[in-house]
Each structure stands twice: as structure tokens, then as C-alpha cells.
Amino acid sequence: xxxxxxxxxxxxxxxxxxxxxxxxxxxxxxxxxxxxxxxxxxxxxxxxxxxxxxxxxxxxxxxxxxxxxxxxxxxxxxxxxxxxxxxxxxxxxxxxxxxxxxxxxxxxxxxxxxxxxxxxxxxxxxxxxxxxxxxxxxxxxxxxxxxxxxxxxxxxxxxxxxxxxxxxxxxxxxxxxxxxxxxxxxxxxxxxx
Length: 193
Prior knowledge:
This protein is an all-alpha fold and about 190 residues long. Helix 7 crosses helix 8 (about 155-175) and helix 8 (about 155-175) runs antiparallel to helix 9 (about 180-190). It contains 9 helices and no strands. It is elongated, with a radius of gyration of 19 Å. It comes from Arthrobacter stackebrandtii. This is AcrR family transcriptional regulator.
């Protein structure tokens, strides 16, 4: 019975760390957030914090996973109801409210292009999930007659993801860029072609 209690406490503490890290990184930024600050915010030492994740990189990968979960809870229902672009645009708009998380994502996605980076697998899984989810939603809209059947759903999903990632990099250099407006124009061009 004691193992269950300590296991549940461990899960709760890990959840608290991720929730706190999401908030702090979103507000302060990835580069401006130290492990010491995160540890202090959840009442742990740095060693205690890393006990739950192993390494700093593993912690940040889990922060990105949690961000994905939060975004899917908030906006994923639109994909499930086949309103592909609305859900994506809502996430893109939301990202401007959490620039620190957008920077973490952009930085790690570039670094994870190397197979040896700890986030390489995460980004491969995330890419496959995003593209499959978007392609399936496009196909459902095609089946419902809402989008032309001649569209290549997989190609559009790939183009949308590449555009989102590129627009985020551009926005981080110039936050006056309206990512959602540019993405909306791309969507219109892709589905009218």
C-alpha cells in the first residue's frame, strides 16, 4: 500500500513540475529559465527536480509533450469535428501568447534534426501524429463534400506543418508578423488549387 501512495505522490509531483514549467517557460522564455528556478518554484533542489526526469533535455521534452496535450485538449476537438484550419489557426494564435514555449519548440526542433539528440524521437512522433491527424481530417471533409476530393491530404498536411514551423521562426524574430493570416492565405491557396 505504501508503494501506491508514494507512486501517486511521485506522479502528482511530476505533474506539478510540468505545469509549473509550462507557465514559467511561457512567461520568461526557455533561455531565461534555469533549472534552479524551476526547482525552487516546486519546492525541490535541482537534483530532486531531475530525479523526476533524468536530464534537463528530458524535462524540456516532457514540457513540450505537456504543451501538446494542453493544446489538443483546448483545440483538438476542432480537428475531430473536421474543422481542420480553424483548430490549427487557433493553436497558432495561442502560440503568440506563449512565446517562451514557441522558442523552446523551435530551438529543440532544430537541434533534434540530429539523430543523437534526445528529442529526435519526440519530433518524429509529433510530426507523424500531426500530419496523420490533419490528413485524416482533410479526408473527412472531402468525404463530406466540404473540400474537393482531388486534394492530396498528405501533401497539404506536410505543407501546413512546414509553414507553421517556418512562421514561428519568423515570428520569433518579428512578433508583428500575423502568422494566422499568412497560414489562412496558404490554406485558401492549397484548397482552391
